Amino acid sequence: MTYRPRRQSRPGLGTRVRRLFEGEERQQATVTALFIGAIVIVVLALIGAVALAWYNDNLRPLARVGTFEIPPQLLRDRVELETWRIGRDQDRVAVALQNGEIDEATATSRTQALQEQLNSLTTDALENLIDIVFQSQLAPAEGITVTPEQVDGLLAKEFAGVEKRHMWEIVVKPIAADAAEGPTGSEQRAALAKAEEALAAINAGGDWATIAHQYSNGDSEPAGGDLGIATANKISDLEFQRQLFELPLNGTTGIVRGEDGFYRIGRVTEILPAGEQAGLRDQLFTRLPESNVRALLNYEAAAAALHDKITNDALAQTPEQARIAVIFIEGEVSEDPTAAQGEIDYSEIVFAPNNSLEDTPPADDPAWAQALTDAQAVYDQLKA
């Protein structure tokens, strides 16, 4: 007998794949492998999403101002600084109420205003930041630079306690014949004219108390307009408050029309500066690094200096002037043609380029000249 060895043929690829799914153990192993693969894919997707979110939160520019890209961290710093400022001012309103400098209604009104500022930070902060960054970029062209010493001064103001000033006022309230309706236009103008007379007397060197007794009809009139030594919170009108606390020693404001329609003139005869308020520095630098705060103050200082320069340059120029005559007849407006007393009837003829009030052609369009010629011809005819 002869033995002949047989060669075993190796199974093909298809056979081997089928064998993987044969038997319960192999099926379980395959399912486990697929499940692990799915988990890996999900984890990679999560890592990618986290990385994208981190990029958007930390690196992706929120806006471009010139060549400067505003990063998210700068906006967060701005919101943090403004939030700290609002909290500081809310605390000061509470202290002023406790000390009897303001009443409950005033405290409530100012607290609500500060809360509104806080609520609007999420929508206004980026736009405001873009504004100050842009203005700071324009400042060097106007010869404006901000020094480290200036930033030091601004930082000191942030941490300063509540300054007190000896303040005086003259208040001219419009006298309304009908208290329910409030002052009319002529009554408002009469009050303004009285305030102008008072300011002229002050500028001529008159005694403040004497002038206050003569012109003022505010609550401080019996004391000659003396408000005593107080913080800014004692001044109810915010614009008048701002101007008083920007005055130099012995300075006098112009006429300030308040939100209540009263006309005020103020003077400061004593300034009691406050030192640094304990705790403010630590509060702020716990929330923000000092270098970040200084960067924001640098932007603000440049923007403020640019605003002041443009304003002062504009005021230094002689503005265009025109002589205007106005006849004003005060009366009730009515749609009833039979109740025409106090009303003014008028007619007008309008000449528009191309006879259209809707479409405005360019300034160099000949239609403008033609409209002017037509208007002049009719005017000459009517005048004749």
List descriptors.
384 residues; alpha+beta; 4-stranded antiparallel β-sheet; two-stranded antiparallel ribbon; 6 strands; 8% strand
- The chain-level mean pLDDT equals 85
Question: Radius of gyration, rounded?
Answer: 37 Å
The assembly state of the depicted protein chains is: single chain
Please give the alpha-carbon distance between the first and last residues.
149 Å
Helix content: 40-55%
Sequence of strands across the biggest β-sheet: 4-3-6-5
The largest pleated sheet is described as: 4 strands, antiparallel
Q: Give unreliable regions as ranges.
A: none
SSE string:
HHEEHHHEHHEHEEHHH
Helix count from the secondary structure assignment: 11
Question: In one word, what is the shape?
Answer: extended
Beta-strand content = 5-15%
Tally the beta strands: 6
User: Which structural class matches the secondary elements?
Assistant: alpha+beta
Structure report:
- The mean pLDDT is 85.
- The protein has helices at residues 13-20, 24-58, 72-98, 104-138, 148-159, 185-203, 208-215, 238-244, 280-287, 290-316, 366-383, and strands spanning 63-65, 68-70, 164-172, 226-230, 256-257, 263-272.
- The longest helix has 35 residues, at 24-58.
- The protein has 384 residues and is of the alpha+beta class.
- It is extended and about 120 Å long.
- 53% of the residues lie in helices and 8% in strands.
- It is built from eleven helices and six strands.
- The protein has a four-stranded antiparallel β-sheet, sandwiched between helices.
